[in-house]
TrEMBL record:
Residues the UniProt record annotates as site (Important for catalytic activity, responsible for pKa modulation of the active site Glu and correct orientation of both the proton donor and substrate): 123
Name of this chain's protein: Family 43 glycosylhydrolase
Keyword field contains RNA-binding: no
Matches recorded under CDD domains: GH43_Bt1873-like
Gene Ontology annotations of biological process type: xylan catabolic process
Taxonomic source organism: Mobilitalea sibirica
Superkingdom as given in the UniProt entry: Bacteria
GO molecular function: hydrolase activity, hydrolyzing O-glycosyl compounds
UniProt keyword Hydrolase present: yes
Key words, A-Z: Carbohydrate metabolism, Glycosidase, Hydrolase, Polysaccharide degradation, Xylan degradation
Family from the record: Belongs to the glycosyl hydrolase 43 family.
Amino acid sequence: MTLNEINIRDPFVLPYEGKYYMYGTRGATCWGECDGFDVYVSEDLTLWSDPIEAFHKPEGFWADRNYWAPEVHYYNGSFYAFVSFKSQDRCRGTQILKSDSPTGPFLLHSDGPVTPSDWECLDGTLYVDNDGQPYMVFCHEWVQVKDGEVCAILLSSDLKKAISEPILLFKASEPHWSRGVKNGPNYVTDGPFLYQPDNSYRNGPLNTTANKSKKDTFNKPLVMLWSSFSDDGYAQAIARSESGKITGPWTHDEQLLYSKDGGHGMLFHTFEGQLYLTLHTPNVTLKEHPIFIPVRDENHVLTVEYNQ
């Protein structure tokens, strides 16, 4: 398959042992009932396998819809999927799954969502700080708070549960370009992803203790990709913590990374060292697909090599 033939939202690419594994939200069932998510495998980022089901809804599972934004991280020898789920009578939340293989099958790991049970949440992502402490960064949804929030929560070392209250990092309305949507002053936060310049993997996993060095990361900024809406529609934005700490304080880049009808992106390096942004575009049901855009990282300033 080619990227144009793959109808997914929220693409996430894991490079691992010479192959690229791409996960995402199934476009056809994004807004309704769902029973799993898939992985696509490639050796060259051009031709991809047919979808391989990496997770299938187990009998008695609490969620029956909106299996959103699966991210797979290699952590302490296993593969962990952070996935948002929803049912008619429970809040949306991010639950953690586990597998011994990047293609699955992924099995339930955390006991339900690790986000607060009475919060509408989505798009959890893993970040491991310089002391080896795992966090999950996630969105507290606009559908509940109107001004969407990006929050962080401490996880246990085995990624089975949250061990702190959520920490508010920033709100969607803060950057000057942010625009309210959905028939009112509602501001969206989507798809946080953490990137530490000069300290991401080239041929191995990102954000694991094996790739962290206090000496290498001291006083380096921590960059977060996230998405919301601007005057031109769905957009890919950058926030940064100049302290290099997840707690911030967080500021927002004036310039959007991708400004028109595309977002929920992440960054990855090829095995040859090229940095890429992947996101889905257009933001239209059944038409969305992943694209890959070369990115330059010059003194911690990210720019895309793409004519929008």
